[in-house]
Amino acid sequence: MTSALAEYRQIGIASTLRRCEIFSDMPSQDLSTIAAITIVKSLDKGQYLFRQSDNPHGFFVVQNGAINVHRVNSSGREQVLRVFRAGESLAEETVAAGSGYPADARAVEDSQVLQVQKSGFLALIKCHPDLALKILSAVGRNFRALISHFDDVTLRDVEGRLANWLLQRCPDPASTEPITVELQATKRLLASELGTVSETLSRTFTKFRQRQLIQQVRKSIIVLSPMRLAELVQAEN
Asked: What's the predicted TM-score (pTM) here?
């Protein structure tokens, strides 16, 4: 029975890893090898996955839930850098770094993550050099996302930030057909991610509804014309 449970657990880990872009095209045998050096971590809402000063022992793939990566300034204000959800990886840069994490990470809902252990992964890279390229690619994606976020916060007003956030979740930003975007986070968390406060975000949603840019249905936002939102973003560039 114990052996069967362990095998089932490994299959579940491998399935989650497969949904992550780093491992999406990896042969099943190699994926099983990665799963063998992976630890499952369960987090309650509000529990920290890691803090900036922690010694890194690996990188993570979100299995379910949501992880808020943020920095806190000297006055105690928290700035959300990104919220990672199921199938997304984070902290890949620690594979090659000897220092701590670049930010804090906390579960914003009950979550489960996979920790790919650093020591075992470095050993695998010696046999599979292409893994190093995949890690570099993941770090590059996250860096581009961070630069885009920095541009939003510093160069756009709240309307532009919200419009850009919605556009990034539209399959075709040039479309004139309605697109539904699911709000997977609370408005408070989204406001923090956009560098504003809940009240300002609520007023911005109201403005968008009044201008017939969006409709709201419970936790869904219907973008009536992505192209019109794109025009709003382009006007700020």
From this structure: 0.76
* Rounded distance between C-alpha atoms, residue 114 and residue 91, angstroms: 12
CATH number of domain containing 220: 1.10.10.10
CATH number of the domain bearing residue 137: 2.60.120.10
Q: Are 135 and 167 part of one and the same domain? A: no
Residues 132-137, mean pLDDT to the nearest whole number? 84
Supply the range of the domain harboring residue 53: 2-155
| Whether residues 193 and 96 fall in one domain | no
Shortest CA distance to 20 belongs to which of 3, 37, 35, 39? Answer: 35
- Tell me the two tokens of residue 182: 């699911």
**Three-state SS annotation for the chain:** CHHHHHHHHHHHHHHHHHHCHHHCCCCHHHHHHHHHCEEEEEECCCCEEECCCCCCCEEEEEEECEEEEEEECCCCCEEEEEEEECCCEECHHHHCCCCCCCCEEEECCCEEEEEEEHHHHHHHHHHCCHHHHHHHHHHHHHHHHHHHHHHHHHHCCHHHHHHHHHHCCCCCCCCCCCEEEECCCCHHHHHHHCCCCHHHHHHHHHHHHHCCCEEEECCEEEECCHHHHHHHHHHHC
Question: What band does 1 get if pLDDT is binned at 50, 70 and 90?
Answer: very low
Alpha carbon distance 18, 206 (integer Å): 40
Cβ-based neighbours of 68, under 8 Å, separated by 6 or more: 80, 83, 105, 106, 107, 108, 189
